[in-house]
Amino acid sequence: YRIVKAIKGHCNEFNTIIDVGANQGQFALAAKALYPQAKLFSFEPLEEMCERFRRNTKHLNGIELYNVALGTEGGIIDFYRNDHTHASSVLPISKEQVAAIPTTASTTKIKVKVQRLDEAIPLLFLKGPILLKLDVQGFEKNVLEGGSTHIQQIDFIVFEASFIPMYDGEPLFDEMNQYLKGLGFQLVAPVGFLEGKDGAIIQMDFLYKRTKSI
Predict the structure, then answer these.
(1) Helix 47-57 with 26-34: angle, nearest 10 deg
(2) Which of 99, 118, 171, 192 could be a cystine partner for 205, CB 3.0 to 4.6 Å?
(3) Mean pLDDT of 121-144
(4) CB 15 within 8 A of CB 127
(5) Is residue 73 within 8 Å of 114, Cβ to Cβ?
(6) CB–CB of 114/75 below 8 Å?
(7) What is the pLDDT of residues 156-186, one digit of tens each?
(8) CA 149 to CA 97: how far, in whole Å?
(9) Structure-model confidence comparison of residues 11 and 212, the more confident one
């Protein structure tokens, strides 16, 4: 809710919100509270999280939930389910994250379905302004690479970026910032953060706005 409230300070209206990494519906509930008119497309690869999402949002209209991961290519992909479900990812968890957040140490490798964003949502149903929210634990760039057509329609993007490698192979903030600039987006503001056990900020949620077409 705090992150969505911070986003609302920069954009008062969204008609479409693409919620990638939906978990059990925390972001969807906040988004519907502050943007009740918005249509939500939510994506979550873990079936047990989808079940919780459906229970948590069953009283709300205008939400479509897809039990699938998003990435660069469609098919089946390895996925590391974490006992701390917020830390589940396509990428293996790093030793740096385990040191900073010991509760993330236990993972189980499973297989999940993956699609490209451009295949997952028909362009016909997207009405602007559009927010793309990414919470996919280091896999954000891959999701964006699989949405080259949809990216042209996105007005704002909010995603989590790390300052230390929380996942093996994860691009850090500097790389992601340059990548977003290349897509025609500029940083608006940080809207959230995560502290490690020593109090250092190890991740932040960043809001970007489209400033030009590519």
Answers:
(1) 30
(2) 192
(3) 88
(4) yes
(5) yes
(6) yes
(7) 999 999 999 998 999 999 999 999 999 999 9
(8) 33
(9) 11
